[in-house]
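Hi R.,

As promised, here are both runs. First protein below:
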Amino acid sequence: MYDILIIGGGINGAGIARDAAGRGLKVLLCEKDDLASHTSSASTKLIHGGLRYLEHYDFALVRKALMEREVLLKAAPHIIWPLRFVLPHHKELRPSWLIRLGLFFYDHLGGRKLLPATKTLTRKNSDVFAPLHPHFTKGFEYSDCWVEDSRLVVLNAMDAAERGATIMTQTECIGLDANGEDWTATLRKQDGTESSAKTKVVINAAGPWVDHIVGQIESRTNTQNVRLVKGSHIIVPKMFEDERSFIFQAGDGRVIFAIPYEDRRFTLIGTTDLPFEGDLDAVKASDDEIQYLCDVSNAYFTQTITPDDVVSTYSGVRPLFDDQAKDASSVTRDYVLKMQRRGDAAMLSVIGGKITTYRKLAEDALKHLKPHFPDAQTQWTETPALPGGDIEGADFNAFEARCAAKHPWLDAATLHRLARTYGTRIERVLNGAQGISELGYHFGHGLYQNEVDYLIDQEFARTAEDILTRRTKLGLYLSTEQKQTLRQKIEEIQA
């Protein structure tokens, strides 16, 4: 008998699993695909307050997110780090004074301590304007943070497992039956085998599938409470040299980010906000979305891009709480927790949320369940590091230098990637190797058998796609032949 069954292996499900397991509760998390295989790996990859939400007067959400920004920065400095953003002033859109006022609030709402404040820039005093059209002569530079979103999910699941939770990927919950105050869940693995699990409480963190799970216990789904919004991104070759990112105002009121990606080898541009109806297992960027992002980019950058320049795309669908906003981009990004019942059996459904506020969401979820688990330990997740994040002083550069001194036989690019990806867990990945020859088969671009073994043993990876897209971004670099070799090796391991 489990205390909690969590359905969904995105950031909310993994965050709740970690929190609950750390309170001494017996937790089972099931995910029909891989961890972070849908919405949680399709974000703009920012830990941020959401500057544009100030326009919708969502001050409480912005404050909550800004406070969490610093908590997460200290918890995982290997996968979360500061970024400076440049917002060029577009004279025909928002007035300069209004932007500066918003950035003043942005600097002060969350009690900023670790990140530098906003400053005003002009073309005369900053070379950051070099890649922009000449009529952009003024702008503002402010702080937010980058996050490797799918790795944040995996690290929460790892921590949950290390605290006693059971994590089952490639396992779908296909049925929920109430038995008095408890539930019996029917679980089906991708190979078709089924099993059952008994639990006191169900947490529905299925993301875009949240209504599908509700439909298993109610005669109708509460579709009026969920609004599905699709966001797409494009990845193009590097468009500018600066390490700073850009945030652009689009003519339709949206904002678009242009972010240095993968150590500035590429530029990530996104996102769109469109109502979504369709197959949630086949979400991809449409031709119109790709063209839209190219058009916004071309309105600011002197370097023109077309859909032919796009190296890769990704898309995700966010299950937002339907607050009856007129357009998708203004729908609240805050979360709503709804307690639902079949008889005396309780299920808590999670609707909406931002990756930045997942930890607070988890705390609030456990507050809702306090009557069911009065003896559970108190909240605890604000200060402990995530796996690999226990870096002295949260100083990643000093940590990387120590790693380089300890492993001089590793080339700088591979060492940097491993340190950024695994933090202090890099030693587990290397597994005592004293030279390149001891890392095993080389699949390409610094991916060796030791790392593949670690990802399968410790990070719930089951397929080549899990490794190349979500545990790392090596899918951008490996050839088709190298990817196929990796698939064959994993099939041999799994056999």
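And here is the second one, sequence first, then its structure tokens:
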Amino acid sequence: MSLEDVKALDDSLTVLKADFDRKDYKAVLAAAPALMSRVGAAQESIASRKAAEAARAANLTDNWNTLSTQVPEIVEAVNARVESLARTKKFPAGMNAAGFESTRAAAGEMTQSWQKALGAFANSNMEEAVNSAQAARQKGTEVMSTLQMTPSS
């Protein structure tokens, strides 16, 4: 239901009230069923939108609940591995120092995305929280692959 639809309903009600005030009951009785039908359609539209929004919110909450358990584990594992490699300077096969620095930067992006997700969640912005957490998980998965980590390492 758009703003124009609400205005059209309001305009119809105004006309109906004017007819009533003029005691033109014949016009009121003629227009009332159509207006009531439009009001019913508006109620259905609103109920449908509310149900869709509730389903969307539930989906975001489910996604957040999953991500909020997965992503911290990924962030912790990746950052621990990056710190270990930075100390030892023993990089995975095929990785040089420049490649490691690029991977380290990607790990930093992952951590920033996760922090952004936590901030959005704290501010009740579930859509941004889920999007940022998904970005963090994706970046973490990429870094894990680059570092030749298995999901449980």
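A quick note on the second one: Residues 3-49 form one domain. Let me know what you think.

Best,
J.
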